[in-house]
Amino acid sequence: MSNVDPRWPPPGSGPEQLSARPRRPAWVYLVVVAVALTLVATLLLPLGLAAVWRRVAPGLDGGVLPGTAPSDRSAVDGSRGVGDRYYPDAGNGGYDVTRYRIGVSFDPRTEVLSGTTTISARSLQSLHSFFLDLRLNITEVTVDGQDAGLAKDGDANWRITPATPVEAGSDFTVEVAYDGQPGDLTDADGGHPWSRSGEEWLVSGEPESAAWWFPSNDHPSDPALMDISIRVPRGLQAVSVGRLESADSASEADWDTWHWVSRQPMATYLTFAAIGSFTLRQGVVDGLPYVYAVTDQLSADDRRTAFTNLETSAAKVRVLAGLFGPYPFTELGGIAVADPELPFDGLEAQTRPVYKARSLINPDYADELVTHELAHMWFGDNVTVRQWDDIFDSEAYASWAAWAWAERNGGPTAQSELLRIFGRARDARDFWRVTMIDPGRRNLFTTVYVRGPMTLQALRNVMGDEAFTRLNTEWAQDPGLRSLEDWMAKAQSLTPTDLQPFFQAWIYGTTAPAQTAANGLA
């Protein structure tokens, strides 16, 4: 993500209190429901009021009480949250999603989004119940075709209790029907992942946005395939990630359904949906199908500029592939959206980055911005952060890639950028207090855009080009989720130089690194 000009965004105030990175536990929460409720259930269920019962006493199903001994005595209640210390409620424990089949309908007159999402998952343990993340209202849920108990726990957490426990290691399917007005809802930090600009609507954001339009295991540690269908009134376009399979199901006179499919797994925050009046350009370049979309709210001249800048993507990908190995996905694209109040200039939606239109047409920024977001296809998308405090693995590389792109295209060298920015930041005490190992939630998307690429260029000086390029390529070509500690271990494995002093200075240190050869600064 680019939420500030990456050339110089040191924070103006000190960070949150720094602390050592703790172990990352997985918690299991047990919810006990009073036995007296079963007496009410025995009265209601014979009357055919099972649906009412699930609302009166959510989480009960077929007389089984969450927290009491299920038929499978090894079954547990899956945890709410995966143990992310910055976002403790994000994601859920006990299962791994393999695929989301999302089908939503949006009515611009009421701004109500309704739909059904089918989740294919595999249990990691025997589950008496488990959680899903969604900020809209769930109206019905089934597990493997059977009605399941339902209980809301917090702003975005729903406990699902299957009729019978899910066996450990088994595949299971959850179907969720839901509706609501996502524009009314804010995130944990007061932000609005769902935004509107005139007759254009967008749901996109980092670290969260999925919960505004589909139920999920909403944490980057659980990437999955996406199959997305968005039904909108005829005349509007609905743009998302992956390959455009069809733009009209031809089943309704006044509505179109746009169908998008991803062929590689992605983290939930890397999806988006944009609904409005867009101009689309489609084709194939370097064997990759592409879709570029630009909001019709721009003037004709600005639309041309936006498309010109989006269409540099293929050339940039070729250069980035020389740095990081082959492009990891099967589609290419980008979208320029109208909202001038977006909290970011660009966001690395997988295969189709989302750009704020006014940033994309800025002649002093567009080249760097597009390069940054495309570099995320390798770092942040193909290789995903294990937890949010691993943001260095994503943003540091995307920012350094913009330096490397400029170096290869007649601009300043990455080394000159390191020296220039280090000279400006050297005496900025607040800047260095925000570490890469623990930037803190408040500074998650600030200092990493500058300290991150400086660290990588300094490491390049220490390791040498050959070993540094090997590090970048081997890391980027191995898809999955990994931590900053994993990256440091990988770097150390590729050089006989002891990198611990370097990491202490650049990753852990709270003051400017000494200008020594060991720190890549001499």
UniProtKB/TrEMBL annotation:
Q: Name one Pfam family in it.
A: Peptidase_M1
Q: Which residues form the Peptidase M1 membrane alanine aminopeptidase domain?
A: 325-470
Which parts of the sequence belong to the Aminopeptidase N-like N-terminal domain? 99-270
The catalytic activity, as recorded, is:
Release of an N-terminal amino acid, Xaa-|-Yaa- from a peptide, amide or arylamide. Xaa is preferably Ala, but may be most amino acids including Pro (slow action). When a terminal hydrophobic residue is followed by a prolyl residue, the two may be released as an intact Xaa-Pro dipeptide
Q: Which domain of life is it from?
A: Bacteria
Q: Which residues cross the membrane?
A: 27-53
Q: Which InterPro entries does this one have?
A: Aminopeptidase_N-like_N, Aminopeptidase_N-like_N_sf, Peptidase_M1, Peptidase_M1_aminopeptidases, Peptidase_M1_dom, Peptidase_M4/M1_CTD_sf
What keywords appear on the UniProt entry? Hydrolase, Membrane, Metal-binding, Metalloprotease, Protease, Transmembrane, Transmembrane helix, Zinc
Q: Which enzyme class, named as a word?
A: hydrolase
Q: Which residues form a coiled coil?
A: none
Task: Tell me its EC number(s), please.
Answer: 3.4.11.2
Cofactor(s) in the UniProt record: Zn(2+)
Positions of region (Disordered): 1-20, 64-87
What family does the database annotate?
A: Belongs to the peptidase M1 family.
Q: What is the protein name for this chain? A: Aminopeptidase N
Q: Please report the organism this UniProt entry assigns to the protein.
A: Microlunatus spumicola
